[in-house]
Amino acid sequence: MISIIGSGRVGSTIAFLCGSSGLDNILLVNRDGKKAYGIALDISNAIPQTSSISITGTSDYTKIAGSDVIIIAVSASMHVVSRTELLHEHASLIREISSKIKQHAPDSKILVVTNPVDVLTYVIQKHEDLPPKNVLGIASSLDSSRFRYILARELKTNQSEISGALVMGEHDDSMVPIFSNARFGSKKVSDLLTGENMDRIKSDVRNYWKSLRDSHWYSVFGIAKNTFAIAEAIIKNHDLETSASVLLEGQYGLTDVCIGVPLIVNNDGIKQIRTINLEKAEAEALYISSNRVKENIHKVFALGT
User: Fold this and answer.
1) Catalytic residues (predicted)?
2) Which of 50, 177, 277, 292 is deepest in the core (most CB within 10 A)?
3) What is the spatial distance between Cα 254 and Cα 197, in angstroms, rounded to a whole number?
């Protein structure tokens, strides 16, 4: 069973993708149980005729018992200017949810979508002392998708021609697009772009969400599809190479912080954190990015939010 906590735009879209593909039974949990019920009622009509899955909506957390995957897509407010603005409010909310998960579904794989995702992935894991392999923050795979799209646009090609487009670090202004890993066909994109080009692309990737906001839209479909892909790998138990925010314990020379890194995920959760070669400037930028996340983690724990 897949439990989705939060039935806003993102949560309901993830539920639709899971339901319309017949992936697994779905439970929508929302503070407004009637809203969750209504969304479940609607998505029920998108379930394939050949599928035996069900979808239900509730406000009752006890029903998450037995969940294989729990996706956290809650939001305390729709009025966001910065991903760190709602840091303390969301940290408090995440702690409440993590306690309920530990009580009712302690062995589930937890996918955190709520921002700031790196800090909250750390909070939920540390608050209930959950196994590191079971908790992932979904963001860097989305940032990597945006990086791939922008590279394709810059190089005047389609996205299928771009491989290895990876973004690491914080899901915010210090994220690190890894140009050294990206390829256009067999060529390194860094050999095809000027320093000015790469600086502009880096800025475009970091500010992508602001472009959505300024266009009076939200990040919905991209994050939902990336979350669905990871949930599918867990449910179907196939190895998926992706990237996510996870607890580092020495990888890339970093410890006690959650940031986006490349990894392999399957039914066991995080099968392997992949180590790739970084150029010196990229490694330094990743270190700075991890410190940004640590600063926000310290703020949360210092105030006891």
Assistant:
1) 171 (proton acceptor)
2) 177
3) 29
8 is in an annotated binding site: yes
Is 293 part of any known ligand binding site? no
Annotated domain spans of the chain: 2-137
- Domain 2-137 CATH assignment equals 3.40.50.720: yes
pTM greater than the 0.85 cutoff: yes
58 marked as binding residue? no
Residue-wise pLDDT for 98-129, tens only, equals 999 999 999 999 999 999 999 999 999 888 88
Query: Which residues are CB-neighbours of 36 under 8 A, at least 6 positions away?
Result: 7, 28, 29, 30, 57, 58, 59
Q: What are the angstrom distances between the C-alpha of 286 and each of 45, 170, 293?
A: 45, 8, 11
CA 174, CA 164: separation in Å to the nearest integer? 20
Which residue has 């990597």 as its token pair?
144
88 is known as an active-site residue:
no
